[in-house]
């Protein structure tokens, strides 16, 4: 199954090893209907933009993930307060991905304007 990831599961980041055995398909952007928050600069949390002034397109990667890998990925994400949900891409395609419970994001910086987790992380090293 194809899955959109937008945080530490992406290539070169700390949790990418959970995708060992998955096949990279392509980079992609979501439809501009999400907001992205930094949770202690360790990982991002993405929520639907309902109730916010506007939404943003968020950068990520698409992987073809074998069903056998999905339980471990979901278990790890759930540990972080995240869950499996539908992600809408800018091309209109929908697929599974990882979303956050909105309450988890309260009090954390909204980093949506950076356009993605990798783009935000680059500002931390400057």
UniProtKB/TrEMBL annotation:
Source organism superkingdom: Bacteria
Alphabetized InterPro entries for the sequence: AH_C, GGCT-like, GGCT-like_sf
Domain Allophanate hydrolase C-terminal: 1-121
Entry protein name: AIG2 family protein
Record organism: Sulfobacillus acidophilus (strain ATCC 700253 / DSM 10332 / NAL)
């Amino acid at each position: 199954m194809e899955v959109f990831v937008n945080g530490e599961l992406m290539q070169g980041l700390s949790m990418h090893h959970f995708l060992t055995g998955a096949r990279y398909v392509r980079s992609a952007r979501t439809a501009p209907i999400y907001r992205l928050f930094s949770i202690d600069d360790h990982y991002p949390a993405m929520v639907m933009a309902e109730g916010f002034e506007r939404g943003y397109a968020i950068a990520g990667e698409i992987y073809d993930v074998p069903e056998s890998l999905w339980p471990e990925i979901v278990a790890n994400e759930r540990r972080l307060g995240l869950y499996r949900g539908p992600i809408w891409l800018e091309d209109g395609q929908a697929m599974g991905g990882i979303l956050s419970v909105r309450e988890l994001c309260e009090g954390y910086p909204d980093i949506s304007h950076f356009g993605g987790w990798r783009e935000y992380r680059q500002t931390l090293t400057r």
